[in-house]
């Protein structure tokens, strides 16, 4: 019997996806560049419907037509190399799926290229890490709708499910799937940083690790319920086996990144979309990585002595609101970017559907995503998520505490770049009049850029002969 599905690249994600697909009743052929990895993997799983192949030729021959081949190799050149090796072996209408973290522009290029070869291509973002791959990830496939229809039964059966709904929808053509996965990762950066800022305030106020764990555990029972809040509570409970101390306090405060956050930043800059919360999160990682410089600066640049212990009692409820409101801003900005690109590319994106598939499998899974789905379902053309009834009420209810938290952080010298960037966006967006009138005066002053007036119809442009400045 020929296999229903083939997978190339047996690193952990690939292996777990294979086991997931197999567990749903499909026979899976597997291939890895280093054959010993294939042999060991198959030997480790006796009795499963797995076909190990040591050559790409035998792998391709073992698959039922149209062939469905998922590539799970390192993003970048390796994907192109595998595709090049596959092309001469494949036949018209065979389907190649790239399930790695590819840059969406690479996906667009590969989609166009494989189409010229008579082959079908899907660029699918797969989120959820190793565990998600094994038990059910969120999947964001991009490519032609007709190809999605062929892949749908397999993707829907292997994805996570929430309320009986699979956490996979056809995102759109071409690079849409990998694009949405990229924004998912940007949002993930934001969520993580916001939680870390909450932690830093609690820490400065003198909460113990056990007390902080209890706060996050409790938050996970309420509106903030999410995977990242949940693992934060668990992480804070963890003791170092050697010293018995809270493990988190022993971990070096130097964060890495793999680049999807920066891709999101670049894309936002190209499209002139404000994603200040995500930017703050990416930049916070950059500053964290400059540990040596920070240690030097800490003895040279002055700040206030934190005195948050006095407000300890009221801090929990306030930080809760600051975190929740900032999170709403982060998603507002992320969806603004998705909407902007979706329209530019004509992808026909379903924003509510995107939020709903993020409810399961992936790192940002959270209860509150339902609210985003509801907002877009009731108003598909919603310009800004903050103006949906639920989020408007939420922000109006939390904004006072949010401000007080940012103010406390500022007066106590505790960095909260993502909380404050979010608040800056909120206060700017809700300002009927900003200070850009002065900006326009400056531009007209030095560059004769002209300006419009509040007392004249829009579209009429004025220039002033400003006084000459000497020196
Ligand atoms: P390997 O076991 O032969 O190294 C993650 O690195 C996965 O991608 C591994 O399964 C690895 O195979 C595979 N991989 C990396 N570069 C590759 C390439 N150029 N061609 C094929 N597979 C590759």
UniProtKB/TrEMBL annotation:
PROSITE patterns according to UniProt: 6PGD
Domain spans labelled 6-phosphogluconate dehydrogenase C-terminal: 177-467
SUPFAM superfamilies, A to Z: 6-phosphogluconate dehydrogenase C-terminal domain-like, NAD(P)-binding Rossmann-fold domains
EC number annotated for this UniProt entry: 1.1.1.44
Protein name: 6-phosphogluconate dehydrogenase, decarboxylating
Top-rank lineage group of the source organism: Bacteria
Known catalytic reactions: 6-phospho-D-gluconate + NADP(+) = D-ribulose 5-phosphate + CO2 + NADPH
Pathway(s) annotated for this protein in UniProt: Carbohydrate degradation; pentose phosphate pathway; D-ribulose 5-phosphate from D-glucose 6-phosphate (oxidative stage): step 3/3
UniProt xrefs under InterPro entries: 6-PGluconate_DH-like_C_sf, 6PGD_dom2, 6PGDH_C, 6PGDH_Gnd/GntZ, 6PGDH_NADP-bd, 6PGdom_BS, NAD(P)-bd_dom_sf, Pgluconate_DH
GO MF annotations in UniProt: phosphogluconate dehydrogenase (decarboxylating) activity
Pfam families referenced in this protein's UniProt entry, alphabetically: 6PGD, NAD_binding_2
Similarity-based family: Belongs to the 6-phosphogluconate dehydrogenase family.
Transmembrane as UniProt keyword: no
Enzyme class, first EC level, given as a word: oxidoreductase
Organism: Variovorax rhizosphaerae
Assembly and interaction partners: Homodimer.
Role: Catalyzes the oxidative decarboxylation of 6-phosphogluconate to ribulose 5-phosphate and CO(2), with concomitant reduction of NADP to NADPH.
UniProt KW keywords: Gluconate utilization, NADP, Oxidoreductase, Pentose shunt
């Amino acid at each position: 019997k020929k296999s229903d599905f083939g997978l190339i690249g047996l690193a952990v994600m690939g292996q777990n996806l294979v086991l997931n697909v197999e567990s749903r009743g499909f026979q899976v052929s597997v291939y890895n560049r280093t054959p010993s990895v294939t042999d060991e993997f198959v030997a480790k799983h006796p009795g499963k419907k797995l076909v190990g192949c040591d050559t790409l030729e035998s792998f391709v021959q073992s698959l039922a037509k149209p062939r469905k081949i998922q590539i799970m190799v390192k993003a970048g050149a390796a994907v192109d190399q595998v595709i090049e090796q596959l092309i001469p072996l494949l036949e018209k209408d065979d389907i190649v799926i790239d399930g790695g973290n590819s840059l969406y522009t690479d996906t667009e290029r590969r989609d166009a290229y494989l189409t010229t070869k008579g082959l079908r291509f899907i660029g699918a973002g797969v989120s959820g890490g190793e565990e998600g791959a094994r038990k059910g990830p969120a999947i964001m496939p991009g490519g032609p709708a007709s190809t999605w229809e062929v892949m749908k039964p397999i993707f829907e059966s292997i994805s996570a499910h929430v309320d009986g709904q699979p956490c996979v929808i056809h995102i759109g053509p071409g690079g849409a799937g990998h694009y949405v996965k990229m924004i998912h990762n940007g949002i993930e950066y934001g969520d993580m940083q916001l939680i870390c800022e909450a932690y830093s305030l609690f820490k400065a106020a003198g909460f113990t690790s056990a007390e902080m764990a209890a706060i996050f555990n409790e938050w996970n029972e309420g509106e903030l319920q999410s995977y990242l809040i949940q693992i934060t509570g668990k992480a804070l409970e963890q003791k170092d086996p050697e010293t018995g101390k809270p493990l988190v306090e022993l971990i070096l405060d130097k964060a890495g990144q793999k680049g999807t956050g920066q891709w999101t930043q670049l894309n936002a800059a190209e499209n002139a979309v404000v994603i200040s919360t995500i930017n703050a999160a990416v930049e916070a990682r950059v500053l964290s990585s400059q540990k040596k410089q920070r240690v030097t600066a800490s003895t040279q640049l002055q700040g206030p002595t934190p005195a948050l212990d006095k407000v300890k009692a009221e801090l929990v409820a306030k930080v809760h609101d600051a975190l929740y409101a900032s999170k709403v801003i982060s998603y507002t900005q992320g969806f603004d970017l998705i909407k902007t690109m979706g329209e530019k590319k004509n992808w026909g994106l379903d924003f509510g559907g995107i939020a709903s598939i993020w409810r399961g499998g992936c790192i940002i899974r959270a209860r509150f995503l339902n609210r985003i789905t509801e907002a877009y379902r009731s108003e598909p053309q919603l310009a800004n998520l903050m103006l949906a009834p639920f989020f408007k009420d939420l922000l109006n209810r939390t904004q006072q505490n949010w401000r007080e938290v940012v103010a406390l952080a500022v007066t106590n010298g505790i960095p909260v770049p993502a909380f404050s960037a979010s608040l800056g966006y909120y206060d700017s967006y809700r300002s009927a009049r900003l200070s850009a009138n002065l900006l326009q005066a400056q531009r007209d002053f030095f560059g004769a850029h002209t300006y419009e007036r509040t007392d004249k119809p829009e579209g009429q442009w004025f220039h002033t002969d400003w006084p000459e400045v000497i020196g």
